[in-house]
Amino acid sequence: MSERAAPFYCPYCGDEDLRPSEEGHGAWECAACNRAFRLKFLGLLARGVQRADDGGDAA
């Protein structure tokens, strides 16, 4: 497995001053807005899955 992915900016304030948190894997802290958040990989989407709004006739 490769290195863990790191976020480029805080999802709350947009600042780039992020540090890994001591809370564990996927946890990050933003020094700019003093918030902590966790990132989690949910999985891969299956190929060939189409959304309801893709294609079809618009009547």
- Which shape, going by the Cα principal axes? elongated
> What is the tally of helical segments?
0
Tally of strands: 3
Uncertain regions: pLDDT < 50 for 5+ in a row?
A: none
State the distance separating the first and last CA atoms: 48 Å
H/E element order? EEE
Radius of gyration: 18 Å
Largest sheet: 3 strands, antiparallel
Task: Trace the largest sheet across and list its strands.
Answer: 1-2-3
Protein name: Insertion element protein
In words, what does this structure look like?
- The structure is a single chain.
- By secondary structure, this protein is mainly beta.
- The chain has a domain at 1-40.
- The protein contains no helices and three strands.
- It has strands spanning 18-20, 27-30, 35-38.
- The chain has a three-stranded antiparallel β-sheet, with no helix packed on it.
- A hairpin with a 6-residue loop joins strand 1 and strand 2.
- The model has no long low-confidence stretch (mean pLDDT 84).
Question: How is the topology of this model organized?
Answer:
Elements: E1 18-20, E2 27-30, E3 35-38
Antiparallel strand pairs: 1-2, 2-3
List keywords for this structure.
59 residues; mainly beta; 3-stranded antiparallel beta sheet; Insertion element protein
Task: Please give a quick description of this structure.
This protein has strands spanning 18-20, 27-30, 35-38. The chain has a domain at 1-40.
